[in-house]
Amino acid sequence: MPLTLRRRPRLPPVEAVSPATDISPTRDDGARPGTTQAEPARTSATETTRTTKRSRRRPSDGWRDRMLGEVFFFLLGLGTWLSNAVFTILGVTAPVGLNPLTVLLGFAFHVLLSRAELHLWYRWRDPWYLLLLVGCVLIDVGTTLVGLRPIAAKWLPVLVGTSPENVLDWGQILIALVTNTAAPVWWPNALTLLLIAFAFALGSERLLRKFYRGMVETWQERPATGAEAAGRS
């Protein structure tokens, strides 16, 4: 073979396998042969006690508390609605006086009036509906104010002040605004009573409906009893 000055290419070094290196195949569970998996940690006595306490709590406990709160709010809404009904009945029957027939007619008028105010506003684009709805609101507020004023004069005279007993006489406030003259000294009392009448007339029905829905929804979330659970299974 002829002599040459070229160096022969070096072969890649063979990696030595260290005796400490474990090249044994792994098992399907990911652990190497000859090794054992770590045992799960033992549950302490404190964690066992906490789990026992939590298991003793029944889901019905929170539901009862929520149901009592919903019933309380519903009774508040019902009381507000009935108060508005009383004010409307007193206002409607003021010209003729109270008797069983006028009370019944006044209550029926209140129910129909509140139904129209609550459910027919989606037709406000129709001029006739809008005119009638505005009239219903004015009648509702007016009758509520007429019935509220004597009750407030008896139980809260400071709220009434020296405002005239006849609500129609309160038009002096508008006359003073138009003619730019001094308003009566009792105008703050009249304005306060008017705002209260608006709140009763427009808010009592909505409060009652809202709290009734909440009470029904909470009742439907009640936990199943033993008999109901057995029947479902």
Explain what this protein looks like in three dimensions.
- The protein is an all-alpha fold and 233 residues long.
- Helix content is 64%, strand content 0%.
- Residues 16-24 have low confidence and may be disordered.
Brief account:
The chain is mainly alpha-helical and 233 residues long.
Key structural traits:
single chain; 233 residues; mainly alpha; 8 helices; 64% helix; 0% strand; elongated
The helix-strand sequence is HHHHHHHH
Helical stretch count?
8
Q: Can you tell me the residue ranges where pLDDT is under 50 for at least 5 consecutive residues?
A: 16-24
Number of strands: 0
Percentage of residues in DSSP E strands: under 5%
What coarse outline follows from CA principal-axis ratios? Answer: elongated
**Structural class by SSE content:** mainly alpha
Mean pLDDT: 80
Summarize the biggest pleated sheet. none
Radius of gyration: 41 Å
Task: Give a topology summary.
Elements: H1 45-56, H2 59-92, H3 100-119, H4 127-155, H5 157-160, H6 172-179, H7 187-220, H8 226-232
Helix pairs in contact: 2-3, 2-4, 2-7, 3-4, 4-7
